[in-house]
Amino acid sequence: MKRSNLLPISMANKMEPLVKLNWLPTNLPSLVAVAVVLTAGVLAIEKFRETKAPEIKSVAWYMANQKEALAKNKECYDNPQLKTTENCVYSLQALEITHKGPNS
User: Fold this and answer.
1) How far apart are CA 103 and CA 82, in angstroms?
2) Dist CA 19 CA 16 (whole Å)
3) Cα separation of 27 and 103, whole Å?
4) Global pTM value
5) Cβ-count burial of 90 within 10 angstroms (0-12 exposed, 13-18 middle, 19+ buried)?
6) Please, which residues have CB within 8 angstroms of residue 92's CB and are 6 or more apart in sequence?
7) Domain boundaries along the sequence of the chain
8) 77/84 Cα distance (integer angstroms)
9) Which tens digit of pLDDT belongs to each residue from 47-74?
């Protein structure tokens, strides 16, 4: 093959892109992947926190469910760290109202 038949392609014949994205970092796929992983991690932590937190029941609920109020009150009495939680306070209030009356 002769050398003269192989002509280099001229730069003028190349097409230029319509929009140049010079401002994007060269490692954009890596940044997107890290962002997706971090977002998924935050969502997983929040979901775990929601499922771990105990359901807070009202004084009215404990008044309607006396057995559960007594069980919760015993649990709170046995564990002093729980005495200030909302469920312990509400169960005690419900028991006091039930045994003393609402106007006592």
Assistant:
1) 27
2) 9
3) 70
4) 0.49
5) buried
6) 73, 76
7) 27-100
8) 11
9) 887 766 678 899 999 999 999 999 999 9
